[in-house]
């Protein structure tokens, strides 16, 4: 199996992980705000191509098929726009280690895009089931602590954590895969 095939696994193993972020209260609050996003990778979609792809198998049906393909495209565009506007994910890797636009243009199935995700995030899918708990950091005065739980595809996002540590030097970050999927 080649590296490209490994990076494009259709059904990944999901690993439960806990990330602890602690440090000065103001810096933790800044991090919390910076990390919040939709929790997805905003792949750039060629909507003209998608409409044509949807129309192709039903073109013999006439004008109704063209109308249906256009309506499906519009629904897809609206859904994508709505998803990108959401901020419900408290730990969005794309907000902290953004995927460059040149990679987003390739699409999620491109081997180069998967390779970039692996090399810069350490996982090839967005995180799922992300929850955040804020606690007082009893070890130090005027400090805060976040506990972020999530599941990631095939491995923890350890490469993203390396970059996040470099970008947020005032914070202590500790990531640990959960035992027994707990």
Question: Keyphrases for this structure?
Answer:
single chain; 182 residues; alpha+beta; 2 domains; 8 helices; 42% helix
Walkthrough of the structure:
The structure is a single chain. With 182 residues, this protein is α+β, with helices and mostly antiparallel strands. It has two domains: 3-39 and 87-177, no CATH class; 40-85. Helices cover 42% and strands 20% of the residues. The chain has helices spanning 3-7, 25-35, 47-55, 63-85, 93-96, 101-104, 111-121, 158-167; strands at residues 14-24, 128-136, 143-153, 172-177. Strands 2-3-1-4 form a four-stranded antiparallel beta sheet. A hairpin with a 6-residue loop joins strand 2 (128-136) and strand 3. Helix 3 packs antiparallel against helix 4 (63-85) and helix 7 crosses helix 8. The longest helix has 23 residues, at 63-85. The protein is elongated and about 70 Å long. The relative contact order is 0.25.
Mean pLDDT: 83
Please describe the biggest sheet, giving its number of strands, its sense, and whether it closes into a barrel.
4 strands, antiparallel
| Envelope shape | elongated
Structural classification: alpha+beta
Strand content: 15-25%
Number of DSSP helical runs: 8
Helical content band: 40-55%
Extract low-pLDDT stretches: none
Lay out the secondary structure:
Elements (H helix, E strand, L loop, with lengths): L2 H5 L6 E11 H11 L11 H9 L7 H23 L7 H4 L4 H4 L6 H11 L6 E9 L6 E11 L4 H10 L4 E6 L5
Antiparallel strand pairs: 1-3, 1-4, 2-3
Helix pairs in contact: 3-4, 7-8
């Amino acid at each position: 199996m080649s590296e490209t095939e490994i990076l494009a696994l259709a059904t990944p193993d999901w690993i439960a992980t806990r990330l602890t972020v602690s440090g000065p209260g103001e810096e933790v609050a800044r991090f919390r705000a910076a990390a919040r996003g939709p929790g997805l990778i905003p792949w750039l979609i060629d909507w003209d191509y998608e409409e044509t792809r949807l129309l192709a198998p039903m073109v013999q049906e006439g004008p109704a098929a063209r109308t249906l393909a256009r309506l499906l495209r519009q629904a897809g565009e609206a859904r994508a726009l709505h998803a990108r506007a959401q901020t419900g994910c408290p730990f969005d890797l794309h907000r902290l280690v953004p995927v460059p636009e040149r990679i987003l243009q390739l699409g999620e199935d491109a081997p180069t895009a998967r390779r970039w995700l692996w090399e810069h995030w350490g996982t090839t899918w967005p995180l799922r089931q992300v929850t955040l708990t804020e606690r007082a950091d009893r070890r130090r005065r005027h400090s805060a602590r976040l506990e972020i739980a999530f599941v990631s595809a095939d491995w923890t996002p350890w490469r993203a954590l390396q970059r996040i540590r470099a970008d947020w030097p005032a914070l202590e970050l500790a990531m640990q895969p959960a035992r027994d999927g707990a």
